[in-house]
Amino acid sequence: MSGRVQCLLCPHTCELEEGQRGTCRVRMNLDGELVSLVYGRPVAAHVDPVEKKPVYHYLPGTRTFSIATAGCNLGCEFCQNWEISQAAPEDVPPYRMEPEEVVSRAEETGCSSVAYTYTEPIVFYEYVEDTARLAREAGMGNIMVTAGYINEGPLRELAPLIDAANVDLKSIRDDYYRSVCHGTVGPVLNTLQVLREMGVWLEATNLVVPGLNDSEEDLEGLCSWIAENLGRDVPLHFSRFFPTYRMTDRPPTPLETLERAGEIASAAGLRYVYVGNVVTGSGDDTFCPECGRAVVRRDRFRIVENGIEDGRCAGCGREIPGVWQ
Amino acid sequence: MRPKNTGRMGRRGFLRRAAVGLAGLAGLGALWSLRAVSGDPGREGRLSRRRARHYRKLAG
Predict the structure, then answer these.
(1) Closest residue to A41, CB basis, from B46, B52, B54
(2) What is the pTM for the complete model shown?
(3) What residue spans in chain A does CATH classification 3.20.20.70 cover?
(4) Which CATH number applies to A39-284?
(5) A180 Cβ partners below 8 Å, 6+ apart?
């Protein structure tokens, strides 16, 4: 017997007739049951430095086996990976890679973790869950790079398997999410708080788009919200926008804007602020908030110097939050 | 100013244009069937059918 189903994974809560797919394109009503069309079918599998995610306070200098399937439950007009995130799964040739193989390949390539990234891991939830469980059993960590648009119930079930997450907080404004990303901000803020509460190492990214979310008010609001609700120790990565996909009507983010964003974040009390998607002098380095020393120096994705000993600044002994070994 | 070729079409002109149109459609159809046969018949087969979690069945 077939019938309608409602997906409860993300806030879209798509109601699907027989044969229909959700907004994500990868979850479908098949004979009255909801199925994942991308389980074990990654379209990308790479060995990356963990710094590329970006995750800066979790096992720096290690490699992470990074996978993605097709699909996403948002539709950001600036998506850098739109060729796979906004595609139907049958339109992008996938690999066949069951969770066991992901973990064995991660081990073979000397990775310390598996990262669910590039597109939106929420839409391949079951694949993440099974792979993460096996990776954990094999002594590896799990990293989720996500927009955080997920319902709280599924998130709380998955979070115990996740060691670190970078959540893309695209703006603090709901109207921005609605008009540019085809979502809402409330669930993303909730995801950030739940991950923090559940002890997942958390970092946040904000893509600064000229003329859309780069005003003083926007940046101050976003930084203040993080400081007040997640704490001043949550690293924030400001990422440079480049015109792509449906947003080709504006230039890349000026470097001065990113510098100003960093100043605003520091003024809001955030202790670890980084600038990404751009080569800067010291925007990638981790500074000790106590003595000002550059405790982790990075050259793009490469660790040049790691001055953290037992989770503390080698200079003054102050604790630097993160998972360092 | 009206375009020059909006005068009444003769019967032969109409038939010729209709024939060209039909030929075009037939060509497109052939191309389409070619694509369907030789394009990538395995595309659907690439998809998994793994039972998902976090959903409910709706009544009616």
Answers:
(1) B46
(2) 0.88
(3) 39-284
(4) 3.20.20.70
(5) A76, A77, A78, A170, A171, A209, A212
